[in-house]
Amino acid sequence: MLHGAVPVPIPPREALKTTERFMTRLGPLLRHHRVLICTPAEHDEIRAAASTDCQISRFTALAEAGDEQFGRATAQQLADTATADWPLCTLHDDAYVQYTSGSTAAPRGVVITYRNLLSNMRAMAVGSQFQHGDVMGSWLPLHHDMGLVGSLFAALFNSVSAVFTTPHRFLYDPLGFLRLLTSSGATHTFMPNFALEWLINAYHRRGADIEGIDLHKMRRLIIASEPVHAEGMRRFAATFAGVGLAPTALGSGYGLAEATVAVSMSAPNTGFRTETHAAAEVVTGGRVLPGYEVRIDAAPGARAGTIKLRGDSVAAKAYVGGKKLDALDEEGFCDTHDLGFLVDDEIVILGRQDEVFIVHGENRFPYDIEFIIRGESEQHRTKVACFGVNERVVVVLESPLDSIIDKAEADRLRCQVVAATGLQLDELITVRRGAIPTTTSGKLKRRAVAQAYRDGTLPRLATHAWTADPDSAPKTTRSSLEGAH
Fold it and tell me: Where along the chain is composition biased (Polar residues) (predicted)?
C-alpha cells in the first residue's frame, strides 16, 4: 500500500479445508492480480498454479526487508519509505478488492473505493449508535466483509475498543464467545443467522451451563449476512434472556459486498420486526441506512421484486472472469440479485433469485424448510440444503455420523414441514458428512448441491421419496439405502 498497491483479502487454507478448494478459490485472483503474498507453506504450490504475470512472494520476505521484489519495489525499499513519500489517496482511488462469498455463483472481486468505504462507515455509525466506552466483539473472519468492515473497520472508525477470536474457536466453543463478550464488556456484535442455532444448541448440550455469561451490556446484537428466521430469533432471545440479553438488543440487518457491507439495520432500541408475505412470517432487514436509494423492480401489481441499490457505498467496478468490469447499470444501480420489498423505511429480504423455486405457480424459498429440518433432526448441527427441481421439493441432509434416517423419521420430518409451510417434500436424501459444500463464510452452496443431484453425483446414504394421494395425504412410495457414489 505504501507504493499504491491495492490489497485483496483472501481466505486462509484452513477456511477452504482442502488444497483443491483452496486452489480453485485462488484461481480468479491469480488471473486478476499482479502480486500474491502468502505463507511459506503455501508458496510452492501457489507459484506452480500461477501465471507468469502474477508474482508469488512470502510474508517472511516482506518482514525481513530483503531484496525480493514486490511489484515495482523491493522489500527493503518498502521498509525504508518515509512517511512523506507515501502516495496521497483520493476518494476515487481503489481501497481494496473484496471477493464475494460465491454461494450462488463464482466469486466476484468487488472493487471498493475510499469513497465507498467512508460512506459506508458513516452510514453504519448512524445505525450502530456507538458511544464512548463501547466495545465491539467479533469472531467473523477478516477476509469477509462483515468481519473486515462491519467489525474491525467499524471499531476503528468509531474509536471504540474491539476484541476478536477466530471462527474456528467460535465453532468449537460457541458459549466461550459469549463469555468473551462478557469479560470484555462488549456492547456490539454482528453474526450470521446460523450462529444463533450454534449458540442455542451449545446452550442445551451443555445442560444450560451459563456460568460466566452476562449480556446486560449488549445493546446491538445484529443478525445479518444470510436470511434471518423469525422463530430462531425468538428462541435465541428466550434462551439468553436469563443472562441479561434485552429484547431490544437483538436486531437484524442486510448487506452485501457490492455495497461495501451494510445496507440496512434494525433501529436502535427497537429489536427486530417481522412482516407477512405470502402467508409466511419474514424478518425485515431493518431501516435503510443513510446514503442509499433502493428500487424494487417488480412485475405489475406485485409487491416483491428484484432489489436494486444506488449510492456512494455501492461499488462501480468488479473483477469478473479475469477482467475489471462495470458493476452498475446505466442509471447507476446495482442489481443485488436478491428479492424483497419495502415497508415504510425498512427493507424486507425474501431470498436470492438463484435460490427461489416454483411450486404450484408460487415462488418459494428454501430457508424455512431448512430451518425446520435442522431443528427437528437429532443432529442439530447438521447441514441441510433445500431446492426445487421441476416443481418437486428436494431436501439433502448431511449426517455428521453417517447415520441413516429411517422411513418413520423421514415421514415425521415431512409432516413437520407440511404443518409449518404447507409444502410437501418430494424427496429427502441423507448424504455423508462434508458432502454439502459451503463458502468460506459458511453459506450453503445450494446450486452446487442441486447440480450434483441432477448429475447423480451426490454421495447418498439413504433416499426417501413420496407422491401425494388424490386427497393430498402423504404416501411414501420409495425408500432406499445407498452406498456413496
Answer: 474-485
The runs of H, that is alpha helices, within 285-433 are: 367-376, 407-421
The domain defined by 357-481 folds into GMP Synthetase; Chain A, domain 3 (3.30.300)
Alpha helix ranges (H) inside 129-192: 145-147, 154-157, 167-172, 174-184
SS3 200: helix
C-alpha cell belonging to residue 455: 448429475
Tens digit of pLDDT at every position of the chain (485 positions): 665 678 888 777 666 556 666 666 666 666 666 666 666 776 676 666 665 555 655 555 555 555 555 554 555 555 565 555 666 788 999 999 998 876 556 678 899 999 999 999 999 999 999 999 999 999 999 989 999 999 999 999 999 999 999 999 999 999 999 999 999 999 999 999 989 989 998 998 876 678 899 999 999 999 998 889 999 999 999 999 999 999 999 999 999 999 999 999 999 999 999 999 888 899 999 999 999 999 999 989 899 999 999 999 999 999 887 788 999 999 999 999 999 999 989 999 999 998 999 888 888 899 989 988 988 765 555 789 999 998 899 999 988 776 778 899 899 999 999 998 889 999 999 998 888 988 777 788 999 999 999 999 999 999 999 986 544 444 444 555 554 33
Report the C-alpha gap between 340 and 188 in whole angstroms: 27
- Scan for cell 443513510, then name that residue: 290
